[in-house]
Structure prediction request, 814 residues.
Amino acid sequence: MSAVADLAYPQDSKPDAALKLWYNKPAENWNEALPIGNGRLGAMVFGNPAREQLQLNEETVWSGGPNNNITSESGAAIPELRKLLFEGKFEEAQALADVKMFPKKNSGMIYQPVGNLFLRFPGHQNAKNYYRDLNIEKAVATITYDVDGVKYKREVFSSFTDQVIVVRLTADEPGRISFSAFMDSPQKSSQRTEDKKLVLSGITADHEGEKGQIKFESQVRVVAEGGETSLANNIWSVTNANAATVYISIATNFKNYKDISGNANKKAAAYLSKASKKRYPKALANHIAFYQRYFNRVRLNLGITDAINKPTDQRIAEFAKSDDRHLAALYFQFGRYLLISSSQPGNQPPTLQGIWNDKMLAPWDSKYTININTEMNYWPAEVTNLSELHEPLFKMLKDLSVTGRETAKVMYGADGWVTHHNTDLWRITGPVDRPYAGLWPMGGNWLSQHLWDHYLFTGDKKFLKEYYPVLKTASDFYLDILQEEPLHKWLVVAPSNSPENTYVAGKRVSIAAGATMDNQLLHDLFSKTANAGEILNRDAALRDTLRATIAKLAPMQIGKHSQLQEWMHDLDRPDDKHRHISHLYGLYPSNQISPYRTPELFDAAKTSLLYRGDPATGWSMGWKVNLWARFLDGNHAYKLITDQLKLVGGKQEGVSTSGGGTYPNMFDAHPPFQIDGNFGCTAGIAEMLMQSHDGAIHILPALPDNWSTGTINGLVARGGFEIDIDWKDSRIIQLKIKSRLGGNCRLRINDDMKKSVSSLLFPARGNNPNPFYEQPHVKRPLISALAKLKPVVIKASSEYDLNTKAGKEYILKF
Prediction:
């Protein structure tokens, strides 16, 4: 609803096409290059006039080959570890774990690059009027510049429909396109020419005792219009063409985590042959149409200022001192762009770096870190209307539920399946890295929560039936391994940890029993499995067991500093500023902590987050945006967005456990780049504008003061409701609700945001009858705080019910 100023926009842009990252100079390094991707193929586009570089990735180019990293010795020390933990001998337990629990095989394989395609343009060193952008409404990168009075243009995209990367080269005068194209690779590789193609073939690296077995092939074809074209000495040459199109096809021998019998040459050739026969305008139109089927579902308008006329890196640098609301909207949509570009059905899930990595030895191997990061990658999927893109994660879960059976049996002597805090293309499930971080048997549990969440948003009973065995067998594992701790007789996981944090002052001690996050995860897994079984009318005895076991789990507790305890024992330190905030999982992404149902826990959780502070790594700040949104504090959530949109120099390469910020190309800076920070902030902005986890759809629950006027279209709430919101002067003007599934729609509206109540609404009465809403959890015991809590003041709100029919739309004016 915000009026858009009459401004001069860069190039031919206009207010409804302003979703561009744009710059007035080429990228000097990888963190300034622009990412394109089609879920499978990724490229970073540098945009240098004289020497274009496309750094190339394909999602299955990983070191090693099929393996599982578990050994028979891995679990030998577990009984002794449990004994030491229950005796309170925490340092001794850590010392034993460090000696006995280090994996005897590998700590996972590495996601690796394919190589680079270079395009050299003679005489373009002194280009003028330079401009480059990434249009995230079209998923196309564009570079324009002038040389000797001629305007040159490049368009680059990773085609969703043709499965190749396409580079289109044009000029505003005929006969002006002259260039050479060649490749290189950091991998073991060779090049040849074959059937009018430049072919680079390679095999991935050995790592930690595993022989590299992924065979990959990149094939490049140049199609010129006019002029002369030749292919010799592994170089494509084009002279005086009117236009040219470069096609890059990449494929591997990977079929699945246990089958690498594919033919990289034939797959790459098939993609290239089909794509290069299609006329460029048709190929571009098909690509954009496919992409926009996803992207156009959600629109966010917070208003536009004249900051839009500045290059994106300058806007990021000035954001904290500006009123550049549009940059926050751009950052939100950039997260959706990255998810569409790195997670397509039938493909692999995005790694720590999505599908973009230029290093043979990537930070943290660019694996799947599943004690927060992989989960965070998918936080925006359902709420920002990209539900189908969740599928790669679900397929990986199905794989892990197979490979994790060996780890459950060998390491723990248990049924069901388990995985720890990392996995990779080969679906390893044993501990990774040293026990300090790696001895955490909850990774599969956390990933499994996404299955039930997908059902709550979609109501897809067929999906629930397909994936119920994953939930059931995950629950089987924990039913087998839970231990009764001696003091309170609570059932707990031991050994485990609260991811990557320590609890003995001055000591690197993480190994624990009954960590709060573990208990919260078990509560959710058991509840969701029981609810799924009830919907599917399966396993009545198991449902009873799961619900009875929930009552015996260690409860959330409030400690001596008025904090929500991170561990079973009251060991939190107010000066602990650790980046992980694992015990607040119960607030977000879970719904076990509520201002309405559990106000004491809600206050304690807020105290914990205040102790932890705001400074953090990029992904941690993304999590904190969501947490402050759940605390209904929009101004604090916005403060974290401001901290995240802090420019970090593109050349910074070092690994840091603090800092955060954003690179010039809008990638999250951990540093280094981790894509989960982008996804976390996108989810957090959605959470500021709508929440549906607590028995109702809360409209504008955490609206910051400086977003007083705006519109959001297409967010999705649990229960299958698509929501459009218009607001002005911090008051709701109009709601549009599309009901996909029908049933009761319960709305929660802050009293200070209402002008009037629509005649279609009536005050809510009793429990919400809609089965897809999250229902209040079973009440659990609570240990009182030793220090007195200061109650959190929550804005008064009212709830209203709207009876809906599937497929109908309802417009409510206020």
About this structure: The chain has 18 helices and 30 strands. The radius of gyration is 27 Å. Confidence is low (pLDDT under 50) at residues 1-17. Residues 378-613 form a domain with the Glycosyltransferase fold (CATH 1.50.10.10).
